[in-house]
Amino acid sequence: MCKFQKPVIPANATDDERRAVMFDALYSLDLSDKVEKYNDLTYLSWANAWAEFKRCYPSATYKIVKHPSTGLPYFADPFVGIVVYTEVTVDGIAHEMWLPVMNGANKAMKFEPYTYNVYDKFKKQYVEKKVEAATMFDINKTLMRCLVKNLAMFGLGLYIYAGEDVPENESSDAGQNAETASKKTTTRKTKTTQQPLEKYAGIKAALNACINQQALMGLYQQHKNEVDSNSEIKALFTERKLQLNQVA
Length: 248
What we know:
Elements: H1 15-27, E1 36-38, E2 41-43, H2 46-56, E3 61-64, E4 75-77, E5 81-90, E6 93-100, E7 114-120, E8 125-131, H3 136-152, H4 158-161, H5 178-197, H6 201-209, H7 213-222, H8 224-229, H9 231-247
Antiparallel strand pairs: 1-2, 3-5, 4-5, 5-6, 7-8
Helix pairs in contact: 2-3, 6-9
Region (Disordered): 170-193
Organism: Phocaeicola massiliensis B84634 = Timone 84634 = DSM 17679 = JCM 13223
InterPro entries: DSRM_SSAP
């Protein structure tokens, strides 16, 4: 599998150019050997995500944003639920991320249990479902999921998400009809499973992000050993080089 190699950054590169090269390096990192599967869905654990990120940025730090009045690591509203925030700082840039505390059916959890109704097309009537009260265990899980999303803002595993947060596929609402459940399952698998496991998906994405020959050469230096020993990857680099020549 592709391991992180510090990219070659020109000595005269600006701060934004340096950060762009590092973003591409993280975005192109193949995490196929780091992701885990749960109920046919793919996700990246916080431990693997943080380990890979620290290999790239040893000085990186993260912060759990705490409520200024209570000092607790969450913000709650009795009507809409609970949300957590994290903040990652590296290379002079800080990105914040947030995530609501949800149950397995992606329903917002609160400090008191509540019920809601869903229409069951088989029974042809509304059925009542219950959302259990949130616990500190639920909040802790959400915090670590939020951290992984936060790291993706710097490029790490960003292609895994495809617009969707890390799956927490415990169980869907049993009252939903089979057709709707099937559509949701197909959509989630396409976004979270098929895309990250596509062969060379990370390198392809990084190649498409190269806007000039200098960026392409930097990416090549980062993956030099793999490119030189793999004809398929080498062909991808050659194809992108020709495309950039045509644009120029």
